[in-house]
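User: Here's a chain of 241 residues. Predict its fold as tokens.
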Amino acid sequence: MQSLLNYLQAIAPDLGSKSLPYPLGKSFPSQFFPHTLIGSLMLVSAIAGYATPVWAVSQLQLVKLANNADGDPITEVPSGQEFIYTIRVSCSGDEDCQDVVITDQLPPQIDWSSENVSILPGRPATVSYDEDTGLATVEYNSPIPAGSPVNLEIRVQFPPGTTVNDIEPTNLAEGTSSNTENATSNALNINSDIDSNAALNKWTLEKNRVIPSTGDPALDSPVTYELKLCHGQDIEGGLDL
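Assistant: Prediction complete.
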């Protein structure tokens, strides 16, 4: 801009007959006013408008993942075992994203009871959850800074005590902001197929006689046996057996 002002000062004596150089001459091809105050002001205003930069509009973005309690990515989980929907909330652009609200409609296959759903917003926020509808809502108390993403966690599980073979509930999150367009996350499917998980099929059944503990049972006397169903891993299938 300073070089443009220097150029204006140089051509001020005969402004009425001199054209601007390329590319300004292409944008403003006509001859300008004689050297008057009004003519100079209009010329400077036109050049200033030509040189004004256009900044990028901020954008709210949501990316959804699923993890186990150790933070490892998962695509399958036993019923009754907690897992985590992680929503990465980010803002790109030159301005922070204002008044951000994230909603997540949990799938009907998930246990909607409040004691089995917990929400960690990642930064100060007003959190609400309706166990009758499975709708989680997070209203952030301050703007989401541009370039500084936030991880929102929703901890859930499939209903314990039931077999949920071949269920793949689809889940996604939605977000709004007062200074950006609305955002929708990717759709996420978590499978709870018991039969396809080889680790869940490593059960052993053991039968032991308790009464009498030694010797052969007497004729017509009661005999008590103990059955043990065991698994080689510490799992939480939550199944009725």
